[in-house]
Amino acid sequence: MTQLEARPQAGDKVRGVNVTGDVGGVRDKGLGGDSVGLMGSAVIGISTVAPVYCLTSTLGSTAGEVGVQMPAVFLAGFLPMLLVAFAYRELNRAMPDCGTSFTWTVKAFGPRLGWMCGWGLVIATIIVLSNLAGVATSYFWLLAGEISGNASIAALDDSKAVHIVTCLALIAVATAISYRGMTATKGVQYALVGLQLVVLAVFVTMAFQKVGSGDFAATSLDFSWSWLNPFAIQSFSAFTAGLSLAIFVYWGWDACLTANEETTGSAKTPGRAALVTMAVLVGTYLATAIAAQLVVGSGDTGLGLANPETSDNVFAALAGPVMGPGLGILLFVAVLASAVASLQTTFIPVARTVLAMSAYEALPSSFSRVHPRFKTPGLATVVAGVATGVFYTVMTLVSEHVLVDTIYALGLMICFYYALTAFACVWYFRHELLLSARDFVFKGLCPALGGTLLTAVFGKTLYDMWDPAYGSGSAVFGVGSVFVIAVGLLLLGVLIMLAMQRRSPAFFRGEVLTKETPALVVAD
Fold it and tell me: Residues 266-290: what's their mean pLDDT?
């Protein structure tokens, strides 16, 4: 008598044959296994998101778009991320592979769409790395000026030469730490993430304490449950603009999945860590958003969150008034720590995606080299660091407007590869969706809804980008420069893919990483 059992996993025995990580074409890449547990994996996910940096850069702009419904938008942005996180969890349980979105999309839809999904992740990460390095540099000199009490030191950041040199130094340090492996990365991250969360807790506590005080009476607001109602937002365009920002503040949680081959219990731990990361983030964002709105309001004057003079760096404006001159400096330290921590951990997904693409012959084989001592994708990590430094330097020297517009283009890349991964989950498990209620919900319904929501945001963002007013306000032949950059980066990926197709035809014929769903194991 026979029965259907689960797919084989690495380390399992199927009919006496040991599964070594080459199930259905998925390969072992020689990374250091059992380097990170559940807590360390969740810390890496939180660190990559950079919650303090995200909050200081988006609280004001989100309030400017949706007013007091800012907390509702953070909740709305959490929904598609949570739904996609279920897709990541289920795919990881079946195929714990460091290529994540790339590998899974190839398995579901074939090599070309999978290659473009991997490209979307890589180019989005390079953009984020360059932005994080720039923010960390600015806060380094700002903090140095605050500590020394010397405005001329803070003003050093205004020099392009000083700014670029400092930025490149930070990128080099972050690359070196990531190069040395997950153990080194994990140790640094515990301290930096802990610092961020503690300082945010202090800020929230002190903000609640000062609600209605004489210093903030003119701008403080009384709490209303309508703040959590996304349907109270006045227009759909305002909602989608706010939602794009909210999706950005959650981006990066999947870093803990790209470290799955180095995680203890690689089939289950990374998925659990992703859900823990999401829970910590949504709780942190809601508490901080409500506290900030209570104490200073969401207006566009004074300390109001939507004041255009301070909306791009809210914590710099609120640190002193809310926490006082002594403790306020901790908020500057937290923003710097957030950017530096994320700069370091964001190398994890890009390096491991490049490693996987190389291991499956979708990129040159040299990128598949793993350091014999540190068990990390050494060359891929170094190349990612060099690419980040070159990208940021060129963009800074060419035009500040171009640099700003590349950041605006980031949202399109995020929606692109997250949505593809969500739909890949539905298609990959299509034969199992009716086996149980759990399979239907977590392998079908949730990923499909998440992918659909992100596809809608992708389409609306692409439409808005056509307008030259989107982003920095610059245009190329009458078309918004953000649209040109976003679509241009995707087309660049197509060109590189076509070049690789000539160099590595086996991968693109589906002979290396097979498209077919692995058959269920039939046991006697």
Answer: 89
Hey, what are 202's tokens? 């202090």
Confidence of residue 400 (pLDDT cuts 50, 70, 90): low
DSSP string, 200-263: HHHHHHHHHHHTT-TTTTTT-----GGGG-GGGSS-HHHHHHHHHHHHHHHTTTTHHHHTGGGB
Residues 59-91 pLDDT 10s:
888 888 888 999 999 999 899 999 999 999 999
> Which phi and psi (to 5°) does residue 33 adopt?
-75, 160
Are 124 and 486 contacting, i.e. CB atoms less than 8 angstroms apart?
no
The single residue listed with the structure tokens 């929606």 is 415
Output the CA torsion sign for 500, 501, 504, 506.
positive
d(CA 101, CA 84): 11
What is the 3-state secondary structure of 329-365? HHHHHHHHHHHHHHHHHCHHHHHHHHHHHHHCCCCCH
pLDDT tens-place string over residues 443-496: 999 999 999 999 998 898 888 888 888 776 777 888 888 888 889 999 999 999
Cα separation, 237 vs 6, whole angstroms: 45
Specify the CATH superfamily of domain 25-523. Amino acid/polyamine transporter I (1.20.1740.10)
Domain boundaries, the chain: 25-523
- The pLDDT value given to residue 14: 32
- 139-162 as b/e: b if 16+ CB within 10 A: bbbbbbbbeeeeeebbebbeeeee
Q: Taking each helix axis as running N to C, give the angle between helix 481-503 and helix 400-428, from 0 to 180 degrees, rounded to the nearest 10.
A: 60
Provide mean pLDDT across the span 202-221. Answer: 79
